Amino acid sequence: MVFTKEVFEKTLKANGMKLTNQRLLVYQVLSSCPGKHLTAEEIYECVKADYPDIGLATVYRTIQLLLELNLIDWVNFDDGFIRYEIGSDLSNDQKHHHHHLICQKCQKVLSFEDDLLDELEKNIYQKTGFSVVNHKVKLYGICKECGGKLN
Amino acid sequence: MVFTKEVFEKTLKANGMKLTNQRLLVYQVLSSCPGKHLTAEEIYECVKADYPDIGLATVYRTIQLLLELNLIDWVNFDDGFIRYEIGSDLSNDQKHHHHHLICQKCQKVLSFEDDLLDELEKNIYQKTGFSVVNHKVKLYGICKECGGKLN
DNA sequence: GTCCATGCAAATGATTTGCAGTATC
DNA sequence: GATACTGCAAATCATTTGCATGGAC
Question: CB of B56 within 8 A of CB of B36?
Fold first, then answer.
């Protein structure tokens, strides 16, 4: 499912919400940066280029709205900022899971698509009766460019 | 390696730091709560029972110190508080890895010991050249008591 | 006695909120 | 025209920091 302006508008209307320039622009900035992890401040700066009057509070409020509509995801790299990225394909319940690889030398963040955790999650269910429905995985290490080696 | 008061003192001295009642008490509170995830405020309240004059700032400073000495670990459950727990066995480089299972119904947090991520990490190295040295894994779902079922 | 450590109060800084004006439908 | 949305400024709140006093060695 491709999320055009029209689909975005329909999603808002379906929830009794109004389409505004500010909301559209915030959504478009995130849509045009897949895989980037933008802070609220960064989104604010991007939108301001097209719409100088937008306020930071509106950006924060729009982010909350997009999160509630499941259109975006958040990540916390524990550096004092919450970051946001456009959601992966949500056409059905199974999300495209991706993990974040964080290089401890250059701070670069890579994404890694994977479903290897299925086995771990089955294992957890068998041993503890806890049924996993979602996960957040951050892997810290050294990237290829910085000379990563397996032990 | 068992961390007694003496070993703690030696570790401090080795780094040119002084042993104080406050530091010992903060360390003891964390030591006596393995598997619990305490906020700075909670640690502060616990220590205050034995030592009413301690200041919250001292607790925060001691936490930083214990983190730098690798005696404790931190977790962020994204609820506005950073939480701390006594470190697992650090006698050699290989840490005891444990993941956190967070029940979305009752908010309970379980720990799960595991090294199944080794396979995932090998996979990542082969595909991307990124070598993982550490990870933080949070698994969200429903616990046994709350009626967890596999899909 | 020398520094390091502490307690207090004030500062910080990302995010949230109140409110009066503005835009959408 | 009603009501939801916005921008601004002020509030929030966990954590940090400055500074003068106190304690460890």
Answer: no
Tokens 């622009």 belong to A25
User: Looking at chain B, which runs of residues are DSSP E strands?
Assistant: 38-39, 72-76, 82-86, 98-103, 109-113, 131-142
Asked whether the whole model's pTM tops 0.85, one would answer: yes
DSSP annotation of B35 = T
- Please tell me which of the candidates A104, A117, A129 has its beta carbon nearest to residue B144: A129
Q: Which residues of A touch B120 (CB under 8 A)?
A: 114, 116-117
CA A27, CA A86: separation in Å to the nearest integer?
Answer: 8
CB neighbours of residue A56 within 10 Å = 14
pLDDT tens, position by position, for chain A (151 residues)?
566 788 899 999 999 999 999 999 999 999 999 889 999 999 999 999 999 999 999 999 999 999 999 999 999 999 999 999 998 755 545 556 789 999 998 889 999 988 788 888 999 999 999 999 999 999 999 999 998 564 4
